Structures are given as C-alpha cells and as structure tokens.
Hints:
Layout (H helix, E strand, L loop, with lengths): L9 H21 L1 H7 L4 H11 L1 H19 L4 H21 L4 H26 L4 H26 L7 H40 L19 H11 L5 H32 L4 H13 L1 H17 L4 H4 L1
Amino acid sequence: MTGTLIQPTAIKDILTGTLLCTLIIAIMYIVPLIGIFAWIFLPLPVLFYRLKTGRNSGGIIMVASLAVLIVFTSNLAFNTLYFGSLLMTGFFLGEFIEKHLSIERIMLYTCFAVLGTCMAVLFFYSLIYAQGIEQLISNYVSRYQALSSQLFSESAQLYPEMKVDSQMLEKASTLFIMIFPGIFINSYLTMIWLNILLIKKLLLTKGIIIKSIENLNQWKAPDYLVFGVIALSVLIFLPIYGLKLLAVNCLIVLMFVYFFQGIAVVSFFFQKKSTPFALRFFFYTLIAIQPFFMFLVIGFGLFDTWINFRKLDTAM
Length: 316
C-alpha cells in the first residue's frame, strides 16, 4: 500500500468524514451516558478517510471537525484540546499504518505524535494568554480533584445505608487521583487498539489486507519489558513518594501491555479451535466485567514470555 488506498472523491468524502466526526462529538455533548463510549469511535472516520483518500483530505476532515466544534461551543479550552487529540489520533494512526510499521511502533509513534502536538498547542496557548503551562495544567488538575472529591461525597450521600466511612472515601479519592495518569494512558491505548481492530475489519470488507495489523493474535511484548516489571515492583516499596507514584503508574501501564498479550493468547486459541462467536463474546464479557478474569489474562500475557503458549517460534 503506497500513497492512497483509493483515489480521492474529494468533497463527498471530506463532507462525509466531517459529518461523522461532528455527529460523534454532538452525541458526546448531548447524551453524556452514550458519550462515555462514543469517544472511542471519534478517531475512526479520520483514520478511514485518511487511508482511503490520502493525507490532505484526512487533514481537512480533522481540521474542519475541530473548527465546527470551536464555532458551536465558542470556546478554546481543554475540551477542545481533548477532542482535537482524538481526531489527531485517527490521522496519525493512518500515517503510521500506511508506512507498514509494526503494531508496537504504530501505537507508540501515534502516542508521541499526539502528545507532542498537544504540548506544542499548550505552549503557544500559554504564550498568547500569558499563562505558564504549569499553571494551566495545575488549574485543570485542581478542578479534576475537586470534581473527584465531589463525586465520592455524593456517592456517600446517595447510599447512606451503606454507612461508608468518609475517611475511607477520601483515601479512595486520593488513590484514584494518584493512579489516574496510568488509567488515562491505558484507556488511550485501548482506544487506539480498538480503532486498529475496527479499521482492519473495514479494510477487509474492501478486500484490503495490511500485514502489519493482520495477525494481532500472534503479538508478543518485547522480552525486556519483564525487567521493567521487576524494577518497578521494587521501586514501589521505596520510601520516596515521587518515585513510588511514578513506579505505580508505569507498572499499571506495563500490566496493561501484558493484558494485550494475554488477550492475544486467548484470541489465538479461540481462532485455532474455531470457537463460536457467542462463546467468544461470553468470555470477552467476563474478562471485561470480572477483575479475576482480567488478572488471569494479565497472568497469561506475563507468563507467555517464558512459556510461549502459542509456540510462535516453532511455528515460524
């Protein structure tokens, strides 16, 4: 796959892509309950039309969708940056998928590209409005902390019969804020992974196969990451708060990497045994809602480093 997948039908594709992105953003604003899940699909129209029509049309869809958001909200704030980062995710995913990079590089380069662009936007925003980046982020974090504490307090008031200890709620709120960076990174990685799976299905319907994202159930994390898990596990017990906080969040991210590997192991055996869709859906639902099964999958991913459940080396 070089250049574009399909010759551009220009205006029609740009309008369709912009309309889809705007519709998803509108759903997120108007119906917050559905919007919790809708954000996952926001990068998809940009990604699809970036691969279908090329870089220029994909970029126009991304910018036009963001411009529509700014016009209707009359606001340049963190929410705009948030939606913009999701739109950029679709664009950069298309860029790196088209280069036939490995799945690890596609995800990693996309994360760095989006993060770098967001930091550049924050830098210029701080120059224009005479506010330091630290102050902008600090204000946003303070608002988030206040909202988090409010949610925990309201939960206690809604369920007074549970006799929840206020100190326990406060500790839970503090813990959640501590591990929020790791949770946020994991949710972002999940969103990227899901969009790759979705675009793979969409391309297959058009008879297009991209080898770099084809055999995802054979994916394996680099072996050296195990040493990172060991080192971070040791750092957690050191009496240095900043180092401990960093180690906890990094370990959460690494565990999620092994969760992906565990899912790949499960998917490999489902495919090998030709497991019916209904049974697959049932087990994937269990994994999503039951922490025990989630940790079991993480264990499969971690021990696959040594045991090689899929015997990938021998199969090659």
